Structures are given as structure tokens and as C-alpha cells.
Amino acid sequence: MTPASRACRVGSGPITQSDFIINQPGCGQKLHVLPYPNAYHRIVLRGNQTNNQFTIIEGLIYINEEARLHYHMNEDEMFFVINGTLQFAVDGKQFCARAGISVYISRSVTQFVRNINSKPAFVQILFAPSGREKFLETVSIINDNSPINSTQANLLALNHGQVNLGEVSKCEDLNCVSDNGTLIKLSLYSIRFMFISIAFYRTINLNKNFKRYLIVD
């Protein structure tokens, strides 16, 4: 292990009762996840570090950047908005998610997320089960090459269980803008996100008859 990797992480490989992982801010593989110049996120935890239970990524979503309407066939997804404000469309319902809000979306449920008029929104995203990193590593190469081949990106997504549906027919005017509050302390909210994530994944395993999406404020 190199000194640089030691500074980012303590513990490695699949998590066990005697193992742990610490990621410092700015650590993790950096990937070009969306077809925008600044749309880089980092992989916080990979499947081979979580017994293939989940993957976590994090990054900024800048104004007018969006993940277009799509759904996942293989993963459930959970967003935690740490800073800024995002507008979601989930299963046809549109709403704002401001700092401190968590949004859970079940697989096969349509979703769209966009920064309408906010300062850069910092978000952590959990995918369960793991495996999402394999798609992100490949689509990052496509997004690095301009002009972006959207047909190739859509086919790649489909091969990884993501069905892209294009644009939302209409974005409602919900005034999804940032408030004047101070930046949320990342450390405290990361801990909260971890506990929510663990509870959420255990709930999935224990009971499959849960809501198709859930907002936690």
C-alpha cells in the first residue's frame, strides 16, 4: 500500500467484523459520470469492500446538470443531499430535495434529478446491491471524449441494467433553489447517512413489500 492510499483509506477488501474503511475527503477513484464537463464523482466504497452489498459514490451536481429520466433494473438507489438543492422526478412525482434530505428509490421506478437553480449540490449516492462502479468506469471513458456518443452510452447503460428514457416532459416550477443556510457539516451527516443506509439495506432483505420510494427529512 502506498503512502497516498494509506492517507485515503484504513482497512481494505471485503468488510468483516474485524475490518473497517476510512475514506478522507477527496479520496476514491474519480470518474466522469455524466455528459457534462464538470460531472466528476468519486467512488467512496466499492462492492469488493462491502461484501458486494452496496456501492457509494459522491460528487457535485452543478446548475443545469441532470441525470435524465431513467430507471435501474438491478439496483435500488438512495440519495443523500449534503449541500445545495436538487429537483427530483420519481415515478411521475416532482419535488425538491434540500440539504439534509435523503431520497430512496426502488429499482424499476423512473427517476430524474437536476440542479435547477442552486449552488453546486454535493450528494452521496448508494446503490444496492453493488456493481454500479463497473458501469461508471466504462461510461467515464465515453464522457471524456467529445463529442459524446450518446447512442453508445445508452447501449452501455442498457447492458448494465439501466434504461434511459430521455427528457422529462415538463419540469415543474417548484422553486428548488438553495437557501442561505450554512454548509452542513459533512462528518456528522456522513455518519447519519451510513446508519440510514445500513437500516435501509437490512429492511430490503427482511421485507420486500416496501414503498417504491421514500423521502427522509
TrEMBL record:
Q: Would you say which domain of life the source belongs to?
A: Eukaryota
Q: Name one Pfam family in it.
A: Cupin_2
Tell me the ranges covered by the Cupin type-2 domain, including all copies: 65-122
Checking InterPro entries in the record gives:
Cupin_2, QDO-like, RmlC-like_jellyroll, RmlC_Cupin_sf
Name the UniProt record assigns to this protein: Cupin type-2 domain-containing protein
What are the top taxonomic ranks of the organism? Eukaryota, Metazoa, Spiralia, Gnathifera, Rotifera
